[in-house]
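Inputs:
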Amino acid sequence: AQSVTQLGSHVSVSEGALVLLRCNYSSSVPPYLFWYVQYPNQGLQLLLKYTTGATLVKGINGFEAEFKKSETSFHLTKPSAHMSDAAEYFCAVSIGGYQKVTFGTGTKLQVIP
Amino acid sequence: EPEVTQTPSHQVTQMGQEVILRCVPISNHLYFYWYRQILGQKVEFLVSFYNNEISEKSEIFDDQFSVERPDGSNFTLKIRSTKLEDSAMYFCASRATPNTGELFFGEGSRLTVL
């Protein structure tokens, strides 16, 4: 069975500061890993994904994440937070391309002007 | 850009009533899913569907729930007799092939059971 753990249900950063949202996964086989963003009253939008290959993946809106097998982590970063980044972020894992995607509990990002 | 569409966006129903939530997945996608998100909580897997049958379902997906792909475009979730605890946002998602990995989500259908 696969699972993800997101550390911190709420994270606050100042505008222009580094964003770091933490995600650790558990999987018995090489995982597919995802970050999704959810704006208020909207659906889930894919930010980025890791399936195979390069461990540093870049996504939309300047976000990136690095797959670290030794640490079972897939933390999301952005060098400089923007007010529009305020949203809820979900880390997710799938153990195969056709298997269900399992979501973490989410991290709400607040950006302080 | 192709997208997953869901209707209705919001439905209010009385406890015990049947509800059907509708989804039109992206046209060339083969794998379909329903998830739900109770207000303020995590996104939970309900069911996956491939080749006209359920491929996996969660413990939440009990006998009150059913899914159907009645034609080549729609994918529906039926709740036979709604309970208060079914109040949630229901998301439909689709996936093209196993190798692409990611799910594409609709905007959700908010179900309120009174």
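The interface with chain A takes residues 31, 33, 35, 41-45, 48, 50, 55-56, 91, 93, 95, 97-108 of chain B (CB under 8 Å). Flag for discussion at group meeting.
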